[in-house]
Amino acid sequence: MKRIVSLAIFAAFLACALPLHAEDEFNTAVHRLSDKLGHRPMRIPFLGAILFFTPARSTHLKLATWEDIDAHLSLEDLEASLQGSLGSEWHPFVKVNSRKSHECTLIYARAVGNDMRLMVINAEAHEVEVIEMDLTKKLQELWLADARHEAKHKNYAGDEKHDDEKHDGA
């Protein structure tokens, strides 16, 4: 009987701990980067209040930033720091490595119901940011509409299109 009770308690504990892993992934990533950088992220006072008053606010946003550090992290360094901190439901979405500006960015995505959760890690010569946010269906539509608008009104060089510069399919 004791064995059954012990197994039931262990199963209940495990069932409670599993959902916490998804919420702890951001903190794990931040702790691993902190260990790699040798610094803790800076505090941003009143960040929650500031984000509350932004017009197209996310329902979930976490931010960690390190400034004034001497860290030249490569894309491989960032990926190694995240190794094991993100669950299998996270998928690489964007990887950018600029050798010219010494900047690298990783974006991972996972589905959360109808929303998309993004984990963005950006490293430059003297700063690193980690952002986790949800893109609601409405924010996704706004994002795509803005991209369509930009594509329609700009040429390939990023300049504004003029009436005499019509391209096929535009």
- The top-level CATH class of the largest domain is Alpha Beta
C-alpha end-to-end distance = 73 Å
Largest sheet: 5 strands, antiparallel
Mean pLDDT: 76
Proportion of β residues?
Answer: 25-35%
> Order of strands in the sheet with the most strands?
1-5-4-3-2
CATH topology of the largest domain: TATA-Binding Protein
Supply the CATH architecture of the largest domain: 2-Layer Sandwich
Helix content: 25-40%
Low-confidence stretches: 4-21
What layout of secondary structure does this protein have?
Blueprint: H1 2-37, H2 47-52, E1 61-67, H3 75-82, E2 91-98, E3 103-112, E4 115-123, E5 127-135, H4 137-153
Describe the overall structure.
The protein has 170 residues and is of the alpha+beta class. It has two domains: 21-135, 2-Layer Sandwich (TATA-Binding Protein); 137-170. It is 39% helix and 25% strand. A hairpin with a 3-residue loop joins strand 4 (115-123) and strand 5 (127-135). Mean pLDDT is 76; it is low at 4-21.
How would you concisely characterize the structure shown here?
The protein has helices at about 1-35, 45-50, 75-80, 135-155; strands spanning about 60-65, 90-100, 105-110, 115-125, 125-135. It is of the alpha+beta class.
